[in-house]
Amino acid sequence: MAGESYLHYIEFRNVFKSFDHPVLKDVSFYVDAGKTLAIIGRSGVGKSVTLSHIMGFMKPDSGEIIANYTDITHMTERELRQIRKKVTMVFQSGALFDSLTVGENILFSLELREDYNEQNKEDVVDGLLDLVDLRHVKNTFPSDLSTGYKRAVAIARALAAQPECILYDEPTTMVDPIMSDDLGNLMLRLKKQLGLTAIVVTHDLDLMRKVADTVVFLYKGEAIYFGPVSELSHCDHPHVKQFLAMDNVEVAGKIEET
User: Fold this and answer.
1) Could you tell me where in the chain the CATH 3.40.50.300 domains are found?
2) pLDDT for 119-135, tens place per residue?
3) What is the pTM of this model?
4) Distance, CA of 45 to CA of 202 (rounded, Å)
């Protein structure tokens, strides 16, 4: 039964996936409840494909996918719906409804909840917007929001389902440094206040260092590092060293510009 056979909240066990070429090759990692894992690496190494497997949008060619302490590898779509009540995803686009206000977008997520009456739902919407510090945009349409604000609203909408785990797909891409920092602080706050488990796919090493406990580094479809964020700088794989060195060059350049 769930929780008895599997020790980790989410786990990849020797996962292979190919399309016209291998995308994931014998990838293994895990994240425990209440912890945050970052998935990093260059574009096209399988980071978003990994999230799609955890949500059950894709099936591995071989290997096992564990989510919510449950083997979901061969689950039907109907069975996966139960898992997705606990494990949700914030897409890079935000995936908000443009025709609805911010408040209505979040309210839409509550429409199927039978444990709330109409006033309860409004209170929940306000509470979620307070949690992400966005009550002031409740009556605003998504088209009038910055990319960063859209991502924060998408996080609030995801929280409406009371998940145990959130998957973030490149949450700080195309976001200015201040909003990027704000989103990182929000992710930390949700982890501490709600005890959320999280996986974040990112190119942003500052975000990784801020929010993640562990990191898996993907290179040519393989997990070349999996372990504590604090130990990543000691990894002797040449690609990891090159990746971190390029980040240091970019940071130095930003300092010189200021």
Assistant:
1) 10-86+163-257
2) 688 888 899 999 888 99
3) 0.88
4) 12
